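User: Can you write out an input/output pair for a complex, sequences first and structure second?

Assistant: Here is one pair. Inputs:
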Amino acid sequence: AQTVTQSQPEMSVQEAETVTLSCTYDTSENNYYLFWYKQPPSRQMILVIRQEAYKQQNATENRFSVNFQKAAKSFSLKISDSQLGDTAMYFCAFMRADSSYKLIFGSGTRLLVRP
Amino acid sequence: SQTIHQWPATLVQPVGSPLSLECTVEGTSNPNLYWYRQAAGRGLQLLFYSVGIGQISSEVPQNLSASRPQDRQFILSSKKLLLSDSGFYLCAWRGGNSPLHFGNGTRLTVT
């Protein structure tokens, strides 16, 4: 069974600085997807970024980028120029590329951006 | 464009009472549908998923059940709620090559 581990329960960063959130996963699959979701206090789940395992190039979405290390099964999220609105829970998630497309989530990292 | 509706937003129910949470998706056909639960301060646990009408897969044995009576409707039910059923319930859908899209959730408190 696949597992996703986020070892940082809480992180904080000064506004405008850069922060990196860690995620590791365990799978024997070769074809899968990885995601970072953001959950602000409203509790809505918002997709931040996605990565296909077959792509070697790291995904980037504006201030958000990932460091995908397939051999190490590591998938970290870097937030550059942190903004107050980035304060939220961040969840790393794994999706096996089968018919179910189930998302398996990590336990989350609570990020606080300090003014 | 596709939208997902989940209701109610908040629910307070006594122990032993029944439960019915509903989720509908618009703007797509034959989506995969999912029910997740999030305990306070915790991650999301997959409860049920469905790849088609009448097809339900259960991930965690428990006091809950799910049904998919129509292509874009997914219902989470319980005959008798337990205190441990309290939590935040999220419905999600997926179609084509898209990632999962989530509803706004239902906060359930069992008293």
